[in-house]
Amino acid sequence: MPTADVTLPMDEMHYLALRKDSSSSFVGSDGLDALSPLVSEMIKLNRILLAINDFNETCVKSQPDGLLLEHAVHGLSRQLDDWAEALPESMRDTPENFSWYASHGLGRSFAAVYLGYYHFGQLLFYQFLHVRPYKSAASVNAYAEKCKDHAAHLCEMIYRAFSTPNCDVLYTMVAHVLVIASTVQIHTLLFSEDESQIRTAHSRLEQNFKILLHLRTYWSTLDRPMMRLRAFHDSCRKSMDTTFVLDRWMLRFLVEFAKPMEQKEVDDQYSPLTLDTLDFVWNFPNSGKLKG
Protein backbone atom coordinates (compact mmCIF):
# COMPACT_ATOMS: atom_id res chain seq x y z
CA MET A 1 0.00 0.00 0.00
CA PRO A 2 1.35 3.49 -0.86
CA THR A 3 2.70 5.38 2.13
CA ALA A 4 1.54 8.88 3.06
CA ASP A 5 4.42 10.51 1.17
CA VAL A 6 3.50 8.89 -2.17
CA THR A 7 1.53 11.04 -4.61
CA LEU A 8 -2.07 9.90 -4.90
CA PRO A 9 -3.63 9.07 -8.29
CA MET A 10 -5.18 11.83 -10.36
CA ASP A 11 -8.89 12.58 -10.45
CA GLU A 12 -10.85 10.04 -12.51
CA MET A 13 -12.70 12.64 -14.57
CA HIS A 14 -9.42 14.26 -15.54
CA TYR A 15 -8.03 10.84 -16.43
CA LEU A 16 -11.03 9.95 -18.59
CA ALA A 17 -10.73 13.30 -20.37
CA LEU A 18 -7.11 12.75 -21.37
CA ARG A 19 -6.45 12.75 -25.12
CA LYS A 20 -3.41 11.76 -27.09
CA ASP A 21 -1.82 14.47 -29.26
CA SER A 22 0.37 14.04 -32.32
CA SER A 23 3.58 13.89 -30.26
CA SER A 24 2.27 10.89 -28.26
CA SER A 25 2.11 12.90 -25.04
CA PHE A 26 -1.12 13.16 -23.09
CA VAL A 27 -2.95 16.43 -22.66
CA GLY A 28 -5.75 16.93 -20.16
CA SER A 29 -8.99 18.72 -20.88
CA ASP A 30 -9.08 22.26 -19.50
CA GLY A 31 -11.72 23.53 -17.12
CA LEU A 32 -12.42 20.32 -15.22
CA ASP A 33 -12.89 20.53 -11.48
CA ALA A 34 -11.53 17.69 -9.35
CA LEU A 35 -14.89 16.05 -8.74
CA SER A 36 -14.04 12.39 -8.41
CA PRO A 37 -10.79 11.41 -6.66
CA LEU A 38 -12.27 7.95 -6.07
CA VAL A 39 -9.12 5.83 -6.13
CA SER A 40 -7.31 8.38 -3.98
CA GLU A 41 -10.06 8.18 -1.38
CA MET A 42 -9.92 4.38 -1.42
CA ILE A 43 -6.21 4.56 -0.65
CA LYS A 44 -6.81 6.94 2.25
CA LEU A 45 -9.49 4.64 3.64
CA ASN A 46 -7.29 1.56 3.39
CA ARG A 47 -4.70 3.25 5.58
CA ILE A 48 -7.39 3.51 8.26
CA LEU A 49 -8.33 -0.14 7.68
CA LEU A 50 -4.80 -1.22 8.58
CA ALA A 51 -5.12 0.60 11.91
CA ILE A 52 -8.56 -0.93 12.58
CA ASN A 53 -7.28 -4.45 11.87
CA ASP A 54 -4.31 -3.89 14.18
CA PHE A 55 -6.65 -2.57 16.87
CA ASN A 56 -8.97 -5.59 16.68
CA GLU A 57 -5.96 -7.90 16.86
CA THR A 58 -4.79 -6.06 19.98
CA CYS A 59 -8.25 -6.35 21.54
CA VAL A 60 -8.19 -10.12 21.10
CA LYS A 61 -4.67 -10.48 22.51
CA SER A 62 -4.74 -8.07 25.46
CA GLN A 63 -8.45 -7.27 25.96
CA PRO A 64 -8.08 -3.54 26.77
CA ASP A 65 -10.83 -2.09 28.93
CA GLY A 66 -12.18 1.19 30.23
CA LEU A 67 -10.35 4.35 29.25
CA LEU A 68 -7.74 2.50 27.21
CA LEU A 69 -10.42 0.92 25.02
CA GLU A 70 -12.41 4.15 24.84
CA HIS A 71 -9.39 6.19 23.78
CA ALA A 72 -8.37 3.75 21.04
CA VAL A 73 -11.86 3.44 19.56
CA HIS A 74 -12.46 7.17 19.73
CA GLY A 75 -9.24 7.85 17.85
CA LEU A 76 -10.06 5.44 15.02
CA SER A 77 -13.66 6.62 14.90
CA ARG A 78 -12.37 10.17 14.57
CA GLN A 79 -10.19 9.13 11.63
CA LEU A 80 -13.23 7.74 9.81
CA ASP A 81 -15.24 10.86 10.62
CA ASP A 82 -12.40 13.13 9.47
CA TRP A 83 -12.21 11.26 6.17
CA ALA A 84 -15.93 11.67 5.56
CA GLU A 85 -15.98 15.32 6.61
CA ALA A 86 -13.06 16.18 4.32
CA LEU A 87 -14.85 14.93 1.21
CA PRO A 88 -16.05 17.51 -1.30
CA GLU A 89 -19.82 17.88 -1.48
CA SER A 90 -19.77 16.13 -4.85
CA MET A 91 -18.46 12.95 -3.21
CA ARG A 92 -20.88 12.71 -0.29
CA ASP A 93 -23.11 9.64 -0.16
CA THR A 94 -26.32 11.04 -1.61
CA PRO A 95 -28.66 9.63 -4.28
CA GLU A 96 -27.92 12.67 -6.44
CA ASN A 97 -24.16 12.15 -6.31
CA PHE A 98 -24.54 8.45 -7.00
CA SER A 99 -26.67 9.21 -10.05
CA TRP A 100 -24.08 11.69 -11.30
CA TYR A 101 -21.25 9.17 -11.03
CA ALA A 102 -23.42 6.47 -12.58
CA SER A 103 -24.15 8.74 -15.55
CA HIS A 104 -20.39 9.17 -16.09
CA GLY A 105 -19.61 5.46 -15.92
CA LEU A 106 -18.22 5.63 -12.38
CA GLY A 107 -21.16 4.29 -10.38
CA ARG A 108 -19.39 1.08 -9.42
CA SER A 109 -16.30 2.97 -8.28
CA PHE A 110 -18.39 5.37 -6.21
CA ALA A 111 -20.15 2.41 -4.59
CA ALA A 112 -16.81 0.72 -3.90
CA VAL A 113 -15.54 3.75 -1.97
CA TYR A 114 -18.51 3.69 0.36
CA LEU A 115 -18.59 -0.08 0.71
CA GLY A 116 -15.07 0.30 2.08
CA TYR A 117 -16.04 3.14 4.41
CA TYR A 118 -19.12 1.41 5.81
CA HIS A 119 -17.37 -1.94 6.12
CA PHE A 120 -14.42 -0.45 8.00
CA GLY A 121 -16.89 1.18 10.37
CA GLN A 122 -18.72 -2.06 11.07
CA LEU A 123 -15.35 -3.75 11.70
CA LEU A 124 -14.32 -1.08 14.21
CA PHE A 125 -17.56 -1.05 16.19
CA TYR A 126 -18.55 -4.71 15.86
CA GLN A 127 -17.25 -5.77 19.28
CA PHE A 128 -19.68 -3.37 20.97
CA LEU A 129 -22.77 -5.15 19.65
CA HIS A 130 -22.59 -7.64 22.48
CA VAL A 131 -19.91 -6.93 25.07
CA ARG A 132 -18.82 -9.28 27.80
CA PRO A 133 -19.85 -8.37 31.37
CA TYR A 134 -16.33 -7.33 32.35
CA LYS A 135 -16.00 -4.99 29.40
CA SER A 136 -16.66 -1.33 30.04
CA ALA A 137 -16.49 1.77 27.90
CA ALA A 138 -18.38 4.99 28.31
CA SER A 139 -19.78 4.89 24.77
CA VAL A 140 -20.69 1.19 24.41
CA ASN A 141 -24.28 1.85 23.34
CA ALA A 142 -23.29 4.64 20.98
CA TYR A 143 -20.65 2.44 19.35
CA ALA A 144 -23.13 -0.43 18.99
CA GLU A 145 -25.51 1.93 17.19
CA LYS A 146 -22.67 3.08 14.95
CA CYS A 147 -21.99 -0.52 13.97
CA LYS A 148 -25.65 -1.02 13.08
CA ASP A 149 -25.69 2.27 11.18
CA HIS A 150 -22.62 1.38 9.12
CA ALA A 151 -24.03 -2.08 8.35
CA ALA A 152 -27.37 -0.58 7.31
CA HIS A 153 -25.75 1.98 5.01
CA LEU A 154 -23.56 -0.73 3.51
CA CYS A 155 -26.64 -2.78 2.64
CA GLU A 156 -28.43 0.22 1.19
CA MET A 157 -25.43 1.13 -0.98
CA ILE A 158 -25.34 -2.39 -2.41
CA TYR A 159 -29.09 -2.31 -3.08
CA ARG A 160 -28.75 1.04 -4.83
CA ALA A 161 -25.87 -0.24 -6.95
CA PHE A 162 -27.81 -3.33 -8.03
CA SER A 163 -30.92 -1.33 -8.85
CA THR A 164 -29.02 1.18 -11.02
CA PRO A 165 -28.16 0.17 -14.60
CA ASN A 166 -24.47 -0.66 -15.14
CA CYS A 167 -23.63 -0.11 -11.47
CA ASP A 168 -24.00 -3.59 -9.96
CA VAL A 169 -20.98 -4.51 -7.83
CA LEU A 170 -20.02 -8.07 -8.70
CA TYR A 171 -16.54 -8.59 -7.23
CA THR A 172 -16.02 -11.23 -4.56
CA MET A 173 -15.30 -8.88 -1.66
CA VAL A 174 -18.91 -7.68 -1.84
CA ALA A 175 -19.99 -11.09 -0.58
CA HIS A 176 -17.69 -10.85 2.43
CA VAL A 177 -18.78 -7.38 3.54
CA LEU A 178 -22.41 -8.36 2.99
CA VAL A 179 -22.02 -11.45 5.16
CA ILE A 180 -20.63 -9.30 7.99
CA ALA A 181 -23.47 -6.81 7.59
CA SER A 182 -25.93 -9.71 7.62
CA THR A 183 -24.66 -10.88 11.01
CA VAL A 184 -25.42 -7.40 12.34
CA GLN A 185 -28.99 -7.88 11.10
CA ILE A 186 -29.05 -11.27 12.85
CA HIS A 187 -28.05 -9.51 16.08
CA THR A 188 -31.04 -7.19 15.69
CA LEU A 189 -33.36 -10.16 15.14
CA LEU A 190 -32.10 -11.83 18.28
CA PHE A 191 -31.84 -8.94 20.70
CA SER A 192 -33.98 -6.01 19.57
CA GLU A 193 -37.43 -5.49 21.06
CA ASP A 194 -38.37 -2.90 18.44
CA GLU A 195 -40.76 -4.48 15.92
CA SER A 196 -39.86 -1.96 13.23
CA GLN A 197 -36.15 -2.75 13.58
CA ILE A 198 -36.88 -6.48 13.49
CA ARG A 199 -38.92 -6.18 10.29
CA THR A 200 -36.20 -4.12 8.64
CA ALA A 201 -33.48 -6.57 9.67
CA HIS A 202 -35.56 -9.48 8.38
CA SER A 203 -36.07 -7.72 5.05
CA ARG A 204 -32.36 -6.96 4.72
CA LEU A 205 -31.42 -10.56 5.43
CA GLU A 206 -33.73 -11.77 2.69
CA GLN A 207 -32.36 -9.26 0.18
CA ASN A 208 -28.77 -9.95 1.19
CA PHE A 209 -29.23 -13.66 0.67
CA LYS A 210 -30.67 -13.04 -2.79
CA ILE A 211 -27.61 -10.97 -3.65
CA LEU A 212 -25.24 -13.63 -2.31
CA LEU A 213 -26.96 -16.25 -4.46
CA HIS A 214 -26.71 -13.92 -7.45
CA LEU A 215 -23.00 -13.32 -6.88
CA ARG A 216 -22.42 -17.05 -6.57
CA THR A 217 -23.50 -17.48 -10.20
CA TYR A 218 -20.36 -15.51 -11.16
CA TRP A 219 -17.92 -16.85 -8.56
CA SER A 220 -17.94 -20.49 -7.49
CA THR A 221 -15.59 -19.58 -4.63
CA LEU A 222 -18.46 -17.72 -2.96
CA ASP A 223 -19.61 -21.00 -1.50
CA ARG A 224 -17.15 -20.13 1.28
CA PRO A 225 -18.80 -16.87 2.38
CA MET A 226 -22.14 -18.70 2.29
CA MET A 227 -20.74 -21.44 4.51
CA ARG A 228 -19.20 -18.85 6.83
CA LEU A 229 -22.63 -17.30 7.29
CA ARG A 230 -24.00 -20.78 7.94
CA ALA A 231 -21.27 -21.39 10.54
CA PHE A 232 -22.21 -18.12 12.22
CA HIS A 233 -25.88 -19.08 12.18
CA ASP A 234 -25.12 -22.48 13.72
CA SER A 235 -22.95 -20.84 16.38
CA CYS A 236 -25.87 -18.59 17.28
CA ARG A 237 -27.98 -21.70 17.76
CA LYS A 238 -25.53 -22.90 20.40
CA SER A 239 -25.07 -19.61 22.22
CA MET A 240 -26.30 -16.13 21.41
CA ASP A 241 -24.26 -14.75 24.31
CA THR A 242 -20.85 -15.83 23.00
CA THR A 243 -21.15 -15.73 19.21
CA PHE A 244 -20.82 -11.93 18.91
CA VAL A 245 -17.89 -11.62 21.34
CA LEU A 246 -14.66 -10.37 19.75
CA ASP A 247 -12.34 -13.32 20.31
CA ARG A 248 -9.95 -15.23 18.05
CA TRP A 249 -12.84 -16.97 16.25
CA MET A 250 -14.67 -13.71 15.63
CA LEU A 251 -11.51 -11.97 14.44
CA ARG A 252 -11.01 -14.72 11.87
CA PHE A 253 -14.65 -14.40 10.84
CA LEU A 254 -14.29 -10.66 10.30
CA VAL A 255 -11.04 -10.60 8.34
CA GLU A 256 -10.20 -14.02 6.85
CA PHE A 257 -12.79 -13.83 4.10
CA ALA A 258 -11.19 -16.41 1.77
CA LYS A 259 -10.91 -19.24 4.30
CA PRO A 260 -13.49 -21.79 5.49
CA MET A 261 -14.95 -21.28 8.95
CA GLU A 262 -15.92 -23.84 11.55
CA GLN A 263 -18.62 -23.35 14.17
CA LYS A 264 -17.58 -21.48 17.27
CA GLU A 265 -16.77 -23.69 20.23
CA VAL A 266 -18.75 -22.77 23.33
CA ASP A 267 -18.64 -23.85 26.93
CA ASP A 268 -20.92 -26.69 28.01
CA GLN A 269 -22.75 -24.30 30.34
CA TYR A 270 -24.51 -22.81 27.32
CA SER A 271 -27.45 -24.90 26.17
CA PRO A 272 -28.49 -25.02 22.49
CA LEU A 273 -31.09 -22.47 21.43
CA THR A 274 -33.73 -22.67 18.70
CA LEU A 275 -33.58 -19.64 16.43
CA ASP A 276 -36.58 -20.15 14.18
CA THR A 277 -36.42 -16.49 13.18
CA LEU A 278 -33.29 -17.24 11.14
CA ASP A 279 -34.34 -20.48 9.47
CA PHE A 280 -35.88 -18.70 6.48
CA VAL A 281 -32.36 -17.81 5.33
CA TRP A 282 -31.43 -21.42 4.69
CA ASN A 283 -34.79 -22.36 3.20
CA PHE A 284 -34.72 -19.53 0.69
CA PRO A 285 -35.31 -20.84 -2.88
CA ASN A 286 -32.08 -21.17 -4.86
CA SER A 287 -33.89 -19.99 -7.95
CA GLY A 288 -34.62 -16.58 -6.43
CA LYS A 289 -33.68 -13.67 -8.67
CA LEU A 290 -32.75 -10.12 -7.85
CA LYS A 291 -35.34 -7.48 -8.29
CA GLY A 292 -33.97 -4.63 -10.35
Describe the structure.
The chain is mainly α. The chain has one domain. 60% of the residues lie in helices and 1% in strands. It contains 12 helices and 2 strands, in the order H-E-E-H-H-H-H-H-H-H-H-H-H-H. The protein has a two-stranded antiparallel sheet. Strand 1 and strand 2 form a beta hairpin.
The largest β sheet comes out as: 2 strands, antiparallel
Portion of residues in beta strands equals under 5%
Shape: globular
The number of helical elements comes to 12
Q: In whole angstroms, how far apart are the ends?
A: 36 Å
* Mean pLDDT across all amino acids: 80
* Low-pLDDT stretches: 22-34, 267-278, 280-292
**What structural class is derived from the secondary structure elements?**
mainly alpha
Into how many domains do the coordinates divide? 1
User: Spatial order of the strands in the main sheet?
Assistant: 1-2
Number-wise, the strands total 2
Rounded to an integer, what's the Rg over CA atoms?
21 Å
- Helix fraction bin: 55-70%
The topology string of helices and strands comes to: HEEHHHHHHHHHHH
Layout of secondary structure:
Elements: H1 12-16, E1 19-20, E2 26-27, H2 38-62, H3 66-86, H4 95-103, H5 107-125, H6 140-163, H7 173-191, H8 195-216, H9 223-238, H10 240-243, H11 248-255, H12 279-282
Antiparallel strand pairs: 1-2
Helix pairs in contact: 2-3, 2-5, 3-5, 4-5, 5-6, 6-7, 7-8, 7-9
